[in-house]
Task: structure prediction
Amino acid sequence: MITGGAGFIGSHVVRLFVTKYPEYRIVNVDKLTYAGNLRSLTDIEGAPNYVFEKADIVNFEAMRELFARYDISGVIHLAAESHVDRSIADPFLFARTNVMGTLCLLQAAKEYWESRPEQYENKLFYHISTDEVYGTLELTHPEGVELPCAASGAGAHPAYGTDFFSETTKYCPHSPYSASKASADHFVRAYHDTYGLPTIVTNCSNNYGPYQFPEKLIPLFINNIRSRKPLPVYGKGENVRDWLYVEDHASAIDVVFHRGKVAETYNIGGFNEWKNIDIVKLLIRTVDRLLGRPEGADDDLITYVTDRPGHDMRYAIDASKLLRELGWAPAHRFEEGVEKTVAWYLAHQDWVDAVTDGAYVAYYEHMYTNR
Ligand code: NAD
Ligand code: DAU
Result:
């Protein structure tokens, strides 16, 4: 069972598992909220080892029924409300989906697996979480500093501080989104510690790539540059995120699902810190080049707007445990991943138009006029 498989990361994970593991039956469970779209999976929807179930993870009876009907032995749980700005506007929804939804799935897995003769043998509940649960780091080196050797990988971009989130960093969430994800992570670990449910948690940094809903920084800005709309940079644009190409996250999930140790936590990251404003400039250069516009043509779209409340300054993941113990490292350099992503969005305007309906546009207009 892959939950949230019609969303951004979930669609890449579903595609990878359906094509790489013909011997598995993949059940994609998704409610199809504004962020879930089956258009992201048209290439694999007819595969014999793939089933889609439209269901709400908060519906406990529906989850119990799905576990029994499909004799589920493994769960990769991605379904969630994922956008920080929306969590500021509607925290209840985030508690409902991210906390109660995770709890319903944990309990359904526990009850079903405990009812089987082999119980927890060869079972796994793998929960996908975020680096945002760790809170924020300081931007102590605004000019950038070389990454420590242990943290070298595909990305050669400098770090903006010398401290990183590790698997033992204390949780300190600041947004309703990260508070709900932190709570879900605690429930997952509690089900392992209390009932012996075989669980793994991974905490990943910012993903980007094809099929990301155009409310997140990178696809929103590609879309706006293309149609020459303002680019709303929060605050001074100095905030730092660690960026990972979505297919690299999917490959990490594959590795952890098959070789990760039960009860462990693994951090997943790109060793690739960027200030928002530098990403915005890179996006403008890339979109303009691919559209044949003159250099600098769209620089004036950059518009500094009121900062996001509680905006975390810097996220930086130390993913060396995953590198050391399971041999995973990101394969894409950022400039290469951004080029692929921009090219994909420019070639798939039909997908963007289909997922951004009137309700979405109205929501955004409301948000910006209220800042
Ligand atoms: P997304 O918003 O693109 O997709 C979420 C999916 O979950 C959608 O298909 C939606 O329909 C589904 N969903 C929402 N509520 C549901 C419910 N009640 N029942 C069933 N399905 C429901 O999210 P994403 O960016 O792909 O993130 C996936 C997971 O990865 C989330 O758990 C998120 O916290 C985590 N994560 C995301 C990032 C990132 O950069 N996007 C980084 C680290 C971790
Ligand atoms: O770190 C992992 C997290 O990354 C995931 O858990 C979340 O699901 C995912 O949404 C993402 O959260 P962020 O808040 O970091 O992503 P977002 O794309 O919303 O913003 C990235 C940065 O860009 C952040 O510092 C805020 C800034 N930003 C964002 C938007 C949408 C802007 O300056 N302007 C914008 O319009």
Summary: The mean pLDDT is 94. The radius of gyration is 20 Å.
